[in-house]
Amino acid sequence: MKFLYLIFLTILLIQFDTFAQQGWFWQNPLPQGHSLNDVKFIDATTGWAVGMHGTIIKTTNGGEDWNIQSVEVDNHLSSVFFTDENTGWAVGIVQGTYRDSGIVKKTTDGGINWITQAWVNLRRLNSVHFVNQDTGWVVGGDYDGGYGKWFGKIMKTTDGGTNWTVQTIGADSILHSVYFTDGYTGWAAGNYGTIIKTTDGGANWSAQISGTEDHLYSIYFLNQNTGWAIGNNGTIIKTTDGGNNWIVQNSGTFTDLHSVFFNDQNTGWAVGTNANYYATILNTTDGGTNWTTQISDSGHSLQSVHFVDYNTGWAVGSGGTIIKLPEGTYQSSGIYLYSHFFSVDFVDQNNGWAVGEFGTIINTTDGGNNWITQTSGTSCPLWSVCFVDEYNGWAVGGDNINGAIILNTIDGGTNWTTQISDSGYYLKSVHFVDHNTGWAAGRRVGTILKTTNGGTDWTHQTAGSNHLDFGPVYFIDQNYGWILGYYWGFCELFKTTDGGDNWYSCWSGCLGSLFFIDHNTGWATGDYGTILKTTDGGENWISHNTGTQASLQSIYFTDQNYGWVVGASGIIRNTTDGGENWTSQKSWTCYNLYSIDFINENTGWAVGEYCTILKTTTGGVTFIEEEEIEKIPIDYILTQNYPNPFNPITKIKYSVPQPSNVVIKIFDILGNEIETLVNDEKQSGTYEITWNAENLPSGIYFYRLQAGEFVEIKKMILLK
Q1: 100 and 141 Cβ atoms separated by less than 8 Å
Q2: Domain-wise residue ranges, the chain
Q3: pTM of this prediction?
Q4: Of 13, 114, 128, 7, nearest to 57 (Cα)?
């Protein structure tokens, strides 16, 4: 654990602040890859952006660096608003099993902690606006199955969001944007050209004639008279009399426009995206009479724009895109191809490769700090990659149309050559045990290929029926190996002890990934959180509880004890006892993860959807911030958490009278390990931890302190 020392001239009191060691962090794209829907700044340095999967990120240096504050699988945030550096709100939806619900989140400490203020019985909350710390509005809509249509909804708070009341508006279409110039005068805009206005804080709303039937996604006013609204098909309309009359302006584009902002009556900006996913930034210097295209860039959708002065603004959008305006500099970076990475392989702490859709191969020589696209010579998807050193590697892939392909490099990927390009099947997995000996397995006609000369020649091998599709293949030496075969939902595990000359069926069941540490010990994963372990080379398997029902895509162990598994919705689980117990690790993504690779028990990478690359240097463990607050104690002490019951934040205090290795873990009522709060050598002292259980359901939980031979457990209640 790293420490930042703050020394005060106070008798018997020395305070140590420690920062949380981040477990998993994004390497591609940067600062993260979830799509962003809104951005707001309170000055030239401090701002927030929110988006899909509950993503909230913050910057305190004008966007040069962004820190992830929150990620939640089922949340999608549409809008954010701050009244000062501490107080802000974010709104969106929570996806439910039967229907979605609106959600309002609030922070009073600049986003360090976000508290859910309200679960709203509306299917959409799209925009939030406050005029002070107490008074604000949210707009959205709800779907009425009886009428088969959406209805616009507005809610207001006068106590900072503690209570919300629904206002009567009479709008027949969903609302996307709300803006107030003071506590009384405001407008909301939505589908089919809907614009409504209030002059009494929302007690009464009246419809205005917008002059368009296009959907309006954003509305902005400089004062009580002058404002603009924008929408699909390049629609821009302007009013100079508070909305009594709206005039259509020529945007010069049919791009869907999502957000509008004006610095004054002349200078304004609009951002959007066209049907071909080209990001568009428009600018005007004459109040909208003329609009010019500033940026038209492929591969990105822009959703929001915000300025703090004439020379300082930002636009955000799909894939975590962040653009600094007016110069148009990208603050987000990385390889973003609207594609997926399926496999990752590292040979040491510096050199690694990932492969994916459209023949994509990328390489790093500095542990993932920088990734470079390599030329594969194919547009076929590449499903698997394997390197035996920093120079020699293979990638396999293909599809039903183009057939199979095997690529080889002997110079680290600077040049890739095709070893096989064949029709009738394609390859899903490749594994080499040395420079010469390797196997590839594939789909259709039961394909297993073997080479003993580095891929110059490949020979076919047979296991089971020719109707089987073969997936993962794994060997621990030139003789011992395993392969999974599939046929119409049926899965069969085959084993060889002679390099594949003979394969025999040793187990059947539904599996998707394999990993062996030696001739006897191995693990397999599958759907519904399945993890199986064998200690007799695959003849018999024992199921272990992972605490999830998610599909698990890839598994990796560094030794008999330390292992990790990744899968759907960004799930990462870790074990330190060979798979007997699995602990959830925070991945900071909700994208599916398809492959994981470690070089030791601390350093590893995971890849997945939308070019996601994650890395850890702590084995995936995130240590919680804590503070030493008192003089040296005389006993080991674990105090009751406070408050208790709590929602969702509580504090845990503990004391150690002598230097000790301290481990504090959280467990649910069934005994499943939820999280590791502390795992570190501690000096004598009393410490306090703040724990946030925002992502956990209400219930009884236990926290356990182990320091040397001292062990104590206490109960706490999360009540939401």
Answers
A1: no
A2: 21-330, 335-509, 511-622, 626-718
A3: 0.84
A4: 114
